[in-house]
Design brief:
Length: 167
């Protein structure tokens, strides 16, 4: 009986430690999200003829969102729109809700022809985070974890006529 109680106490201590670490990590993550002053989202298109290739960079701050669309470096569109602080907060919450985080690097073992997403965020000029993912052959490579596609869709939802900018 004494042995069972010791095991029970040990399990409870370990469980408490895991819960504390998890809560601390979530709180640290949330605190880092709250300190963001600038977000940069990059989408890199697959290798297709220039007529169809559309990569873009979206820069978001508390009062503006800037979109630059290119085809292999040739700028096709460069537009800036005003946003309000609640829209900026919406994107910051999206990073948290979609669990954007850095994970162990998964190396690409020769897959070609995919697309990539990269997200960076800053507190003023201090880079808080940078990670990327390469989508190829129904697999993801890189160090970015979480639902970046959903975050990208949330970002694009703030841009008037986003699809028109890609033409």
């Amino acid at each position: 009986m004494k042995h069972v109680i010791k095991k029970y106490i040990l399990i409870m201590i370990l469980l408490f430690a895991v819960i504390n670490i998890t809560c601390f990590s979530k709180n640290q993550f949330k605190k880092s999200i709250e300190s963001i002053t600038k977000i940069i989202y990059h989408y890199y298109d697959s290798s297709v003829p220039p007529k169809y290739h559309r990569s873009y960079t979206i820069l978001i701050t508390e009062n503006k969102i800037k979109v630059t669309v290119d085809s292999y470096g040739d700028i096709l569109n460069d537009k800036e729109f005003e946003i309000d602080s609640s829209q900026f907060e919406f994107i910051k919450k999206s990073l948290f809700q979609n669990k954007i985080r850095k994970g162990k690097l998964i190396e690409n073992k020769g897959c070609t022809g995919g697309t990539s997403d990269q997200i960076e965020y800053f507190n003023n000029d201090d880079k808080l985070f940078s990670a990327s993912v390469y989508h190829c052959g129904n697999k993801d490579y890189g160090d970015l974890r979480g639902d970046i596609r959903n975050v990208g869709n949330d970002i694009k939802s703030l841009i008037p006529d986003f699809k028109e900018l890609l033409k």
